[in-house]
Amino acid sequence: MKDMNAQTPLVEIKGLEKRFDLDHGFLETLKFRDGRIRRETRAVHAVNNVTMDVNRGEALCVVGESGCGKSTVARLVAGLLTPTSGEIHYDGNRIDDKSRSEMQPLRKKIQMIFQNPYASLNPRMTIRQALEEPVRHHYPSFSTAEVRDKVTEVMMSVGVDPSWAKRYPHEFSGGQRQRIAIARALTVDPEFIIADEPISALDVSIQAQVLNLMLEAKESRGLTYLFITHDLSVVEHFGTRVAVLYLGSVCETADTATLFSHPKHPYTRALLSAVPQLKDDRPNHIRLKGEIPTPINMPQGCPFQSRCAFANNRCRSEKPKAIHQPDGSLVACHAVEEDRLEQDVIGA
Amino acid sequence: MSLLSVRDLTVKFAMRDETVTALNGISFDVAKGERLGIVGESGAGKSITGFSLMNLISRPGYVDRGEILFDGEDVVKMSDKRLRELRGDKMAMIFQDPMVTLNPVLTIGQQMIETLLAHRKLSREEARQIAIVKLREVYIPSPEERLDQYPHELSGGMRQRIIIAIALLLDPQLIIADEPTTALDVTIQADIMELLLELCQSNKVGLILITHDLGVVSQMTERTLVMYAGRIIEAGRTREIINDPQHPYTQGLINALPQQTLPGQKLRQIPGNMPSLTNIPPGCPFNPRCEYATDLCRTRLPEIAQYGQVQVACHEVQRLQAEGERQEQKA
């Protein structure tokens, strides 16, 4: 069994669904329609049948635009939300149905970094208190000196001077706070880090510092990342594999290099073409018609059909399944499956 | 003659303990129909620059010295009445967050017609017709219906289009756009930028685009100012600045982008943070983060001066240029 560990993914997500009910309580569910009172519950379909694996040592990036459900996926995997249906397996064990106390030993292995370092650190705790708390919690046998040593070591490794430990979060800049938030995740020696837009709130020069730090930690500690972001240039740099999410469904999963050189799904192509390029003064982006539909009344068929230039009747009635492509990517698109996309677009 | 001419603009904020200099002797020009980008990180002073052009700096901030000549008239010395005529009419501003800019309790139509009636002698019906034309120009589907909708009924991209339509209502000569797409998704950002570019070009409207995104500046503007700690440290044609930046900070900013490094490699980061405005180091404000800093940089402020194609505020720029050329010759 030990040998198999190398091949089995660290995290397996199978058919994950999450719905948020909009109508709570009996009275809210009553609607008046066609002259009669009916009971109806509306729900936001945040995540729909998402299946993906995170292999050991890789950085899987989940990209998509606001409202596509990428943060919900992160929170589901971290156990901060309970899925409506589907399974999440960690290291071969199912974790989404575990109780809080059963999850306890796993919490040490799975840590999360959030977007806003101004909100994720308790303003009334010093940095030392904030960093020591998780160590004391997960290693109750540690002596005070051991806890302190551990925290000092991690602070050094993320480039935060240990002599600053007595300070409060408001005394630090955004970039330093994000370092501290990363340090807090690293103090318990996790193996899997879920990072939800960890650099989006930071300035360009600081983004590079934090991204370098996360890459370094990946190398030196053998970390596996689930990295949620909307910034495709960061994905290209940081990710080993990418999953593109649209309206709660995965459109395309591929190795980073493959995705950027040969995007297949019409949405992935539009997304890539929209990134403003430095050296290219002739922007040539693929304009999408319409806007992202709300995830309340999900359209039948492919979630992207209302904006897709290649949609036909099949797209409007049948939801496409993810199909393996020759280059190893997984694409959920009828047009790709039927080879209806112009080849020259792929080449360009 | 240039449409806008800013000379030695200095803006200060009187705080309880001390006076902070947010803008320090900024000078630049915008020609008629020209598109100028202002880039920098948070705290560089780019938004303050935008606000002061419309004389929107309010207490505790004040313009300490310098002049802002718009069509030959100094905005700083204008009366409130003259300013009201200018704002919206000759100069319009687009802000980052479309939800905050639009009034949530007025319909789109009320807000657009109100603007028109405040500046022009029109009947309500004429104003309504102009509003519909402008909404159509920014590709709003079924504009007649949108006029009766409230901002919350529209998506973020749609709201930002309406803001652009409002900015264009009175055919201004200059639009100041302060991070107009930062709150939007990339696909919507691309749409809005394309639209803004198209409208500026077809109506010969000048644009000042304030952003932190070098990619956006590169695609949208003809000239660029790079700001750091309240000063312009590099200015010139956008192409020159992006392809061959001279100031070490501009170089650092461009090199720090993930696109500039091979995937998985360490990014070339700029060490340290932007200084806080209460504690700007002596000499060149960038010197503590600069790998080329000398004793001169630590003691004397470099003046902005012309070097080749661009203006740069750096003592070491000639040495760096010479070294760059030597390396090129070797290679």
UniProtKB/TrEMBL annotation, chain A:
SUPFAM superfamilies xref list: P-loop containing nucleoside triphosphate hydrolases
Primary localisation category: membrane
InterPro entries: AAA+_ATPase (IPR003593), ABC_transp_ATP-bind (IPR050319), ABC_transporter-like_ATP-bd (IPR003439), ABC_transporter-like_CS (IPR017871), Oligopep_ABC_C (IPR013563), P-loop_NTPase (IPR027417)
PROSITE patterns for the chain: ABC_TRANSPORTER_1, ABC_TRANSPORTER_2
A Pfam family this chain is assigned to: oligo_HPY
Domain ABC transporter: 30-272
GO-annotated molecular function: ATP binding
Membrane-protein topology: Peripheral membrane protein
Keyword terms of this UniProt record: ATP-binding, Nucleotide-binding, Transport
Cellular localisation: Cell inner membrane
Family classification: Belongs to the ABC transporter superfamily.
Protein name, entry field: ABC transporter ATP-binding protein
TrEMBL record, chain B:
MF-aspect GO terms: ATP binding
UniProt keywords, alphabetically: ATP-binding, Cell membrane, Membrane, Nucleotide-binding, Transport
Signal peptide: none
InterPro entries (alphabetical): AAA+_ATPase (IPR003593), ABC_Ni/Peptide_Import (IPR050388), ABC_transporter-like_ATP-bd (IPR003439), ABC_transporter-like_CS (IPR017871), Oligopep_ABC_C (IPR013563), P-loop_NTPase (IPR027417)
Keyword field contains Zinc: no
Membrane topology: Peripheral membrane protein
Residue ranges occupied by any ABC transporter domain in the UniProt entry: 6-254
PROSITE patterns: ABC_TRANSPORTER_1, ABC_TRANSPORTER_2
Subcellular location: Cell inner membrane
PANTHER family on file: DIPEPTIDE TRANSPORT ATP-BINDING PROTEIN DPPD (PTHR43297:SF2), OLIGOPEPTIDE TRANSPORT ATP-BINDING PROTEIN APPD (PTHR43297)
Protein family per UniProt: Belongs to the ABC transporter superfamily.
Protein name per Swiss-Prot or TrEMBL: ABC transporter ATP-binding protein
Organism from which the protein derives: Aliiroseovarius zhejiangensis
